[in-house]
């Protein structure tokens, strides 16, 4: 089918900056794209990762490494292959940064449960419990934000942006 899209911004490390040129493209007529390497669906990183220092440093480092290896690749990759490789690289790094939060949340829940079992009637319980529950709350808030983004993406992808549609859906339930 017909498709229109806009790229708002593209992350480029300082090493790549001198390779950038004007990227204004107003219209591409009958562009067809066929990639057999692309999996199902569309993957998007959480926008807050752009503010995560560890993520941006790791991404910058890996993009610099990618660009260095790109110069020596034979045969040279097409621009589309380069872009696909960059997207795979960014996805891998984003997932590496986000996954530890789930493990940390599991550890904190175990720690909280152990604390409740072992220190039921001691005065130390409220202090330790408050610290652990604060950490759990921070991780859970990040998870809630991620789920809200996913819900909004699903809503937009399915064309359900109309307030009239929303009202009729709610009233029919």
Account of the protein in words:
By secondary structure, the protein is mostly helical. Helix content is 61%, strand content 0%. It contains five helices and no strands. It has helices at residues 14-17, 53-71, 79-118, 125-157, 163-172. Helix 2 (53-71) packs antiparallel against helix 3 (79-118) and helix 3 (79-118) runs antiparallel to helix 4 (125-157).
Q: Care to give the gist of this entry?
A:
The protein has 173 residues and is mainly alpha-helical. Helix content is 61%, strand content 0%.
Strand content: under 5%
Q: Return the domain count.
A: 1
Number of helices: 5
Straight-line distance between termini: 33 Å
Molecular shape: flat
Helix and strand element order:
HHHHH
What is the arithmetic mean of pLDDT?
Answer: 76
Ranges with pLDDT <50 over ≥5 residues? 27-36
Class of secondary structure makeup: mainly alpha
**What gyration radius follows from the Cα positions, in whole Å?**
23 Å
Biggest sheet architecture: none
Helix percent reads: 55-70%
What's the β-strand tally? 0
